[in-house]
Amino acid sequence: MMRSLFLGVCACAALVMPALAGGLDAEVSDAWFRALPSNLPAGGYFTLRNKGAATLTLTGAASPACGMLMLHKSDESGGMSRMDDVPSLEVPPGGAIAFAPGGYHLMCMNPSAAMKPGASVKVTFAFKDGSTLAADFTVRNAAGK
Predict the structure, then answer these.
(1) Contacts (Cβ under 8 Å, ≥6 apart) of 93
(2) Helix (H, G, I), strand (E, B), or coil: what is residue 15?
(3) Environment class of residue 69 by beta-carbon count within 10 Å: exposed (0-12), middle (13-18) or buried (19+)?
(4) Phi then psi for 5, rounded to 5 degrees?
(5) Which residues have C-beta within 8 Å of that of residue 104, sequence separation ≥ 6?
(6) Cys bridge to 25: 49, 51, 123, 125, which one at CB 3.0-4.6 A?
(7) How many CB atoms within 10 Å of residue 93?
(8) What single-letter DSSP state applies at residue 41?
(9) 84 neighbors 77 (Cβ within 8 angstroms)
(10) What residues form DSSP beta bridges with 66?
(11) pTM for this entry
(12) How confident is the model at residue 39, as a pLDDT?
């Protein structure tokens, strides 16, 4: 009986250990959304740090507070501003990428009632290797406060 129990525990550990060893070593900090009036899209800002030894490839994000959440980048060229979808972003080992006003950002289309100043909303990031990372974002007003 003890031998069967021991073998069962070893088998479970063999299944769990690879998942733990291949875990995502990343962190999200300074996460916030700028909520705008009249259900206008909200911009999301944060810093993503890669604390691991392999390149991370961010491929998307989702939030129950957004009808659709996309990776975007703002650019200015010749006095004209534009925004483009970004299909993915690589973060090198030990590196970080900042999503900030005027550059990379999350674009929250069709924000829900949860997107109100003072609230906190959850965002789940997706990576090329299939891993995910959840983070809480503070919601600020149009002035960023």
Answers:
(1) 50, 52, 53, 54, 55
(2) helix
(3) buried
(4) -65, -45
(5) 71, 72, 73, 86, 89, 97, 98
(6) 51
(7) 12
(8) P
(9) no
(10) 111
(11) 0.81
(12) 85
64: left (phi over 0), alpha (psi -120 to 50) or beta: alpha
CA distance 42 to 39: 8
Using the 8-state DSSP alphabet, how is residue 21 labeled? H
CA dist., res. 64 & res. 73, Å (int) = 22
Query: Percent of the chain scored above 70 by pLDDT?
Result: 84
| Residue type present at position 112 | S
Residue whose structure tokens are 């925004």: 83
30 backbone dihedrals φ, ψ, rounded to 5°: 50, 45
In whole numbers, what is the pLDDT of the chain averaged over residues? 86
The encoded tokens of residue 97 equal: 């990428």
The model's pLDDT over 73-94, given as tens digits with 9 standing for 90+, comes to 998 878 888 889 999 999 999 9
The Cβ of residue 115 has, within 10 Å, a number of other Cβ atoms equal to 23
Task: Report the pLDDT value the prediction gives residue 2, as an integer from 0 to 100.
Answer: 42
